[in-house]
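Support reply, case 0932

Customer input (verbatim):
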Amino acid sequence: MFLTTHLGSRLFCKKGLAEALGVARPTLDRWIANGWLEECTVCAFSNGERSYSADAVRKVLEKLR
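Our regenerated output:
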């Protein structure tokens, strides 16, 4: 699942982002723990959930290639 901002960017929760990237949730958790997606965090909610910008994730992954 994703949300769309007023500018048209997609925001994903961790589960939705893992599905969109085609990776297992533990793999995504490892990437986050390593700090690779830190700059992609758009907002954090009081329950600890974070949203990740699809555009920012794409840019980070292109740099890591």
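We compared this against your earlier run and they match. Two observations from our side: The first helix runs from residue 14 to 21. The radius of gyration is 11 Å. Please reopen the case if you see a mismatch on your end.
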